[in-house]
Amino acid sequence: MAPATYHLPPTTSFMTSLTSDQRNSLYLQEAVRAGIHKPILAALHRVHHNPVLSDGETGLGISPKTSIALNPINSLTEQVRYAANTVRSLTNDLMDSGWQVMDFWDSEKGWYADKFIRAIAAGYTAPISDPTAAVLESTDAKNLMQAYQADSAIDFAMAHVPANQAYLDQALLSLVEQLSHHYLALDFQRHALLEMVRLWLRLDDREIATTVLEVQTRTRADPTMVSEFYLDLALLRFVRGIAPNYSSYPHQREALLRLTQLWRQLDSREAAIASLAKNTSPAPDLNFVDPPLMALVQQIPYSYQAKGVQRNALVEGFRLWQQLETRSAALVTLGVNPEIFSTPNPQPSTLQMAASQLDRALLDFVRHIPNLYQTAEHQREALLHLVQLWRGIATQEQTVPSLVEDLKRTQTAHRDSQEAPPTPIPGFLPAHPDRWTLDNIQLFAAIRPNGSLTWAEATHGGIHMPPNQATVDAITGIAERAEQIRDRLGRPFRIIHWYHPAAPSACAERDPEDRHAIGDAIDFYCEGFTADQLYWFLDPWWTGGLCRYRHLPYVVYIDGRRERARGVKERQRAEVGSGEWGVENRESGARS
User: Fold this and answer.
1) Residue 339 pLDDT class (50, 70, 90 cuts)
2) From CA 201, how far away is CA 91, in angstroms rounded?
3) Which of 218, 252, 398, 577 is deepest in the core (most CB within 10 A)?
């Protein structure tokens, strides 16, 4: 028999146009590629809204040149791409015609100058020599200015960018001038430099940027492999030439901002601007050594050979972790009498027993480190000192480079190789309490003893924690009953939505019988079953609330009320998980 297939009901409809967030992501993608300021693309779309495109969207005022077929720019994606290229082409032409830096950029406000916005609004036809650009239609300069500055202000506000950005050019140069001293040849650093070179040279492709560097990038052993050594030399040589040639033109500034963002692994261009107001050093935070530290710590229990050097390294690491003054204090904390090791002629059996006890305590400590590590400075210092002693390295300054080499190996290691990072080990859960309270919730523990539903499922991974004991009790109550469903089905179901606090502004609009905010309602699905199948299975014996959703053919709602309630819910204002639902129909005779 062929397997059953399931289809969404024909009444389900989907929007074909992009959301505002999707459009913004598209603007950002093309702005980063072209080295222009992203808000100008958002502004062009807002003020033009033409032509009407084949994908149901409206364009950015871009029309084809005679050398460009209509099809490539008849979608929003291509409209944005050609718009970015055309703004870049206009910038290049104006630079060649003698425009000065202040004509392009308002350095204090951190956006395009009024003169440049007016030039964009006037329209532009890219030269035939630039096949990547097109024709930008003219528009009202005032409207374009307002739309551009409004979108810029949103980006600045989200990243808490200072109102006056006059500091930015000097901050960028300060970072670049120090950069070669802090280059560790890590993948993300190399990527940051290549992106800077690409934008500085006004190129679309990092591969082309690599070629333009004109260095030996192929190894003799394998001509297909790029020599990272020679590439790094060329990149650093390029960096040293930045400051003498920096003229504050927009593409140069965008190149250095992109470098800063990727070098510091920040969320956005604006976050890079905000970070430079506080710190212009390219020195990386030591948190970049945390991954190799944790990898080494996880391997210690398997490589420990009870050697004196290894034991000493662990004791010292423990001492610094616990912020204890002496080695003796560390041994006492570990449950070992330190006098045993200082006695002139100890009994070998006593010494061996103490050493074994110490080893067990130390390895138990090591196994808990990945779950206890909070990246506190004293904790990291303890682990760095542990590595230093474990590997027999002379100084901590030499310890960090050894971890950098570990990190490089893990970046390219095959998943099954010894160099690959070990799989994290789950934390150790304490004993199941007699009663759950606000103070003893364990996120990954089963709510019911020997059950399968966890507090993580009930609280969306800890996003929505219970505010009071009543909510805790409601969650434990519905968990007890929901486990019966799993037991009867003989297979697990997937929790979509459980506890979710009500938004204060939405209280008056909520369905009074939707109990997610109380904690005793669950939306779930079970793979292979439709909502109807689950509903028919549960209806005879489930004594609480039981509903299906008209627009969700696989999702079932249950709650822990004392009386029976049955019905069909229909979305009115939000998707599952929002806590805002309306009830279209409640089947007659459903309440007992």
Assistant:
1) confident
2) 14
3) 252
Instruction: List the structure tokens of 299.
Output: 């391997």
Cis peptide before 3 (omega within 30 of 0): no
Strand 565-570 versus strand 545-549 pairing type: parallel
- Report pLDDT digits (tens) over 47-75: 999 999 988 899 999 999 865 655 678 89
Residue from 231, 223, 238 nearest 185 by CA: 231
- Given a contact cutoff of 8 angstroms between Cβ atoms, the answer to whether 263 and 204 are in contact is no
Give percent of the chain above pLDDT 70.
Answer: 88
Residues 279/170, Cβ–Cβ less than 8 Å: no
pLDDT category of residue 393 using cuts at 50, 70 and 90: very high
Measured between alpha carbons, how far is 486 from 583 in angstroms, rounded to an integer? 27
578, exposed or middle or buried, with CB in 10 Å at 0-12, 13-18, 19+?
Answer: middle
Burial grade of 66 (CB within 10 A; 0-12, 13-18, 19 or more): exposed
Strand order in the sheet with 135-136: 62-63, 135-136, 124-125
Of residues 387, 382, 389, the one with CA closest to residue 318: 382
Pairing of strands 552-559, 494-497: unpaired
Structure tokens given for 412: 């390219």
Question: Which whole-number Å values give the CA distances from 97 to 91, 188, 504, in the listed order?
Answer: 10, 37, 58
Alpha helix ranges (H) inside 467-580 = 469-489, 531-538
Strands 62-63 and 135-136: antiparallel
Residue 298's Cβ-side half-sphere holds a number of Cα atoms within 13 Å equal to: 19
* CA separation for the pair 340, 354 (Å, rounded): 7
Would you state the structure tokens that stand for residue 205, as one six-digit string? 């492709």
The angle formed by the CA atoms of residues 386, 389 and 395, to the nearest 5 degrees, is 100
* Distance between CA atoms of residues 435 and 471, nearest Å: 13
Q: What is the pLDDT of residues 241-270, one digit of tens each?
A: 999 999 999 999 999 999 999 999 999 999
The pTM of the full predicted model, rounded to 2 decimals, is 0.82
Q: How many Cβ atoms are within 10 Å of 498's Cβ, its own excluded?
A: 25
- Cα 237 to Cα 80, 231, 499, 537: the distances in Å are 34, 10, 57, 71
Which pairing describes strands 552-559 and 545-549: parallel, antiparallel, or unpaired? antiparallel
Q: Which residues of 71-109 are buried (b: 16+ CB within 10 A; e: fewer)?
A: eebbbbbbbbbbbbbbbbbbbbbbbeeebebeebbbbeb
Q: Alpha-carbon distance 250 to 38, whole Å?
A: 12
pLDDT in tens, 507-527: 445 555 669 999 999 999 999
